[in-house]
């Protein structure tokens, strides 16, 4: 039994009232005059008080009546768990491969069907299938969603807590970056697949790689390590500024690491990237020397702000002493500890412009002394559209699979899978009836006339 307003039980303190009434039930004594001693004078009157409870039943009835009234104030109810009406579960399989799945796992599927399981297409909409769909060749169709998204979408179709048997392969390219949480009991039965090898050509930052994939890993090997076009970089440094030496050291480190040829301040020709290390506005000549779709990295001029903060780079904090007040609304790439822009990026007239609101100088920050400096410049120097995807692309020839040890990938959401349907039933009516019966009984006992036995 539960109470909607448990604070109402404080009314039980009223039980002390009938107890006090019964204990202080005073009986007055009677004065009897006897003629034979009348001459001796009238004795002083005396009264007697009895603190003895004479009627226990009446006291209990009155106390019980108060208990029931307190319960009514607290509004009692009974919570009844109603098990979900899950008569069966689901069998999930891609309709395009269901014929082969049924041949391979016929015994398992037949036993599940006898238990009342339903067959559903492992695709958007989860269309119900029948054994007729195992006859003949099915037209091949491609999932518009990956397995992770489909299993998450199934939460809206599969009854909570139901059992689901999924017949599907375990290749990684079918899954998203995160595993979903399901509200049903999922049993993943992998399809039998022989170990296969595949290869394809991938491009990244002007270099070609041969990707070789097997069920356990995918590796990349550069093909034209000596055929890449050099990266031409120009550095303009204003008089009195010695920041260029730090930048040149970082660029050389990038070249050694990536095995790319980087030419700093070429004698002639267009440049790929220009670094303008000056407070003066970027000259039109310098800007026009950059190739279309090239990059310009420029110091921003403005109010210098002393800042006891840090530059947030790749989850690490680089000490920041001074910065320039940012007024540009471009996309933030680097920020300080307060979210102020340190480096922003925008595209203007076929040129990628990076606005830097600090300096490559130890008096401004500790960036040039940190090994993260080289890594931070890498996406600016070696730019590629598929930077984030390289090595993680969802290539159809990727043979990598989930490990056999990863059988419990999609854990049920305990906050939902353990939920049982409940029904609250108010008990107020029963308590009112009980209160009425007790009140009537108490009144009858209170007005009941007790016979007086008089003996002469």
TrEMBL record:
UniProt keyword terms in alphabetical order: Membrane, Transmembrane, Transmembrane helix
Keyword Zinc-finger tagged: no
Domain Aerotolerance regulator N-terminal: 1-76
Transmembrane segments: 6-24, 56-78, 426-445
Record carries keyword Transmembrane: yes
Lineage top rank: taxon: Bacteria
Stated name of the protein: Putative membrane protein (TIGR02226 family)
Species: Pedobacter alluvionis
